[in-house]
Structures are given as C-alpha cells and as structure tokens.
Amino acid sequence: MASPSIVPADRLDRDMYLVLEDFSSGPAWRETDEDRTDYRTLISDLLTGQYEHPLRVVAFNPLEGWSRDASEDVAKDLEQRVAEGFEVTETVREFIERFTGRVLGVQLLLPLRQF
Predict the structure, then answer these.
(1) Distance between CA atoms of residues 113 and 106, nearest Å
(2) What would the pLDDT profile of 65-92 be if each residue is shown by its tens digit?
(3) Tens-digit pLDDT profile for residues 22-79
C-alpha cells in the first residue's frame, strides 16, 4: 500500500513545469516558487529572460502520476511567439533551435511558379 502524500491534493492537481538550467557550476534544476510552475508563467519567464541558459523543460502532474520532457512543445510555442514579434535572448533562441531543429529568422524560399 502506498503512503499518502503529505501535500494537500488540491495543490497537486495541476501540471507543473521545471527548467533544467546550465549554471557556471553545471546543470541544475532551477529553484522555483510553487505558484510559478504553470505553463503560462514558464513561457512568460522564458520570453523575458528569467532563465539565462535553459537546457530542458520537464512537465509533471503529481496527482495523475505522470511526467514527460516538454522541451519540444515549449520550444515550438516560443518559436511561434518569436514569429509574432517577441524577442528572446540568444540562449533561449538556441533552446528553440535545438528542440525544433529550425534556425530562427531564416525565411525559406518558395519555388517560383513557372507560367
């Protein structure tokens, strides 16, 4: 039989996002206040340069019992924001490019139609 959680269930029933960041001493999970682990706040913090060297984003939901690497989804969302005119730091740009496989700011040429 599993031990009951010491954390109230109402605080666990949501998706949470944590960032693995590269600090000068090496990679570590960024300390984050509980109320700043939601997706909207994560995206806002990445857009405003709150993370200097993001390496990976992990999403989890303790009540549902799952976790996953959310880096690609976050990178795609950030890529869309950049396309809408948001500016990001160079390290966030590198994060986006690493997980989308596309270089930002490069317009792909469309073939000209022959008449």
Answers:
(1) 21
(2) 899 999 999 999 999 999 999 999 999 9
(3) 998 999 999 999 999 999 999 999 999 999 999 999 999 988 889 999 999 999 999 9
For 41, 69, 89, 95, the CA distances from 99, given in Å and listed in that order, are 20, 11, 16, 6
CB 71 within 8 A of CB 56: yes
Pairing of strands 16-23, 54-61: antiparallel
Question: Which position has the token pair 């924001």?
Answer: 81
Residue with tokens 């990445």: 46
Tell me the β-bridge partners of 56: 20
CB atoms within 10 A of CB 85: 6
Query: Where do we find the tokens 């090496």?
Result: 26
Q: What single letter denotes the amino acid at residue 77?
A: D
pTM here is 0.79
